[in-house]
Amino acid sequence: MIGLLKTKILALFSVVSIVKGVNVTNAIEVETPSGWVKGYNITTEEGQITRFVQIPYAQPPVGNLRFKKPLPVRKWEGFQGISDEQATWCSQWYYPAPGTKMPKIDEDCLFLNIYVPGRISMDRNLSVMVWIHGGGFVSGAGSLYNPIKLVSKGDVIVVTINYRLGLLGFFTMNDPLASGNNGLWDMIEALRWIQNNIGAFGGNPKSVTIFGQSAGGGAVSFLALIPQNEGLFQRAICQSGMVYSLAVSNRKSEKRTMDFLLERTRCKGKQDVAKTLECLQGLPVENITNAVTFMDMLVPLNLTIEAGGFLPSIDGELIKENIGYTKSFDDELYRFFRSIDFMSGTTDGEGVIMLQSITQEVQNYYNFSIAEKVPSSLLCEMAAPGYVASVAGNVPELSQEICDFYNITGDTDAKSNKICEFYGDYAFLVPSNILLSIHANGNSKSETFQFLVTRRSPIALIQTPPSWFKGSIHGDELPLLFNVSSIRPISEVELESLKREKKLSDTLIQYWTNFAKFGNPNGENITEWPSYDMNNKRYIVIDNPIHTSENLKPRATDLLMRITEIGRQRIEPAVSSANILHNVKSPNFLKDLWSFHANLFQNGFSFIYLLCYILLLLL
Q1: In this structure, which of 68, 160, 472, 613 has its CB flanked by the most CB atoms within 10 Å?
Q2: pTM of structure
Q3: DSSP output for 166-179
Q4: Which domains does the chain have, with CATH numbers?
């Protein structure tokens, strides 16, 4: 019978010999609609949980399924689930941190991991939190993030998932045979599996929260802006990651990546897309993952990258346009998004990521070292013009506005931090502000909450910044929510420092899990978290002590929103053109065409151009 639970008590010593770092007391077997799974009871300082690792949610994406949407997993015979803490990772670039264990990496990787508090019972109806890991859409794995603290203290089920990364997850030939976004499709298939199976673990499929950090937070926002996902989740949390205009790849960079890949794999020159795809599907997976590297994405003497084929793209199905260029809050695009509860926030030092993109070549060109400073010339001559050109086209006066706004007077450290703020603002903070306002504007049906992390973590999960850099850095909240020792080794000194943050950690866990259970993070014995509204735009500051503030960086938000709006108006004629061509036989064709003409005229196009365009349509 589906959902039947049977427990086999195993000899303690026989299990401990293969599961390290935890106290394993017995094995648990659960029948799900997909088949039987095996998990293990784990006792830790935080309490007892049951852990199910490496459960398949889709068919292996190998062979002729490479570069294809995931197919639902077939019902299996026997048992799924392993005793190890780490599931297989998806194929990726991997540079192990010193002292870390080499994981198993394979193309057959569409697995999820389920962590249940206490005993397993179908009657518990627990809320479910689905973690989408970060890593720039090119690296990482679900099981790197151990959610024992969230599960045992928050009394929720946490599911961590793998999804295809890099070219295997996002390569596109802009053809129905290879349309891209397979990493996003993997996430959707995992959410479908959860809907169908989580009840067997005592989970409530009608109380699902998706949450993620960095690229995982960006993925959460993409999923929330796809109306077809309605019913798969009811709440969303974005941590230092959000869709914005540069998070959606463009055709030019996609073609550039495709040319690199086909040339280096000898799959170029095939007679059609089908033959080219067949060639790529027949290669060893390492030939795909190693064909195009991060260095290939870099633009010489520039801080931007050409990451087409490594990012979500406009495929005409999941993503029909660059949704990073935002619209009016009442647009149909946001209908589903505004129906769910939404929480979003960043750290105050997201600009640290900018430092990682400053190559030695750039430092030599401007004669500086990031160990000492970042000069204003880098901002005004490279960073600002590069950003404006990518978002809004060649508009020097906008670059100058950015230069004037972020180039402050003061000591070298203050000026360097302000320049880094520019990157943190346009890539993280302002996109978060914009989507929070879209969600909250006139919305009485769901809840909206914002946070800002200003507390520096004793455990830095990215490269430690220079001594002059101020603020909480990218990922600083993660050690407060997860055990992150699988990401990198943690010293005794760091561990002791983290223990002193226990009260803050417990509070964050209460906020996050309350939001997952009730759509509201507030609860007993914690600082009240005001909801975000269009009047005050209140948010909570995660520090010691926790406190509240309002209207985060309004001037930076106004400036960067205005630049993005100019970019949206620039691309609208091309979008309108494609829509009109698609609807040429519709009864409203002439009306649409006239509206298109008006748009062209406002953007500097002549009526002669329109006449030429009509002739082309009629040929």
Answers
A1: 160
A2: 0.89
A3: HHHHH---SBTTB-
A4: 5-75+112-297 (3.40.50.1820), 332-560 (3.40.50.1820), 583-618 (no CATH)
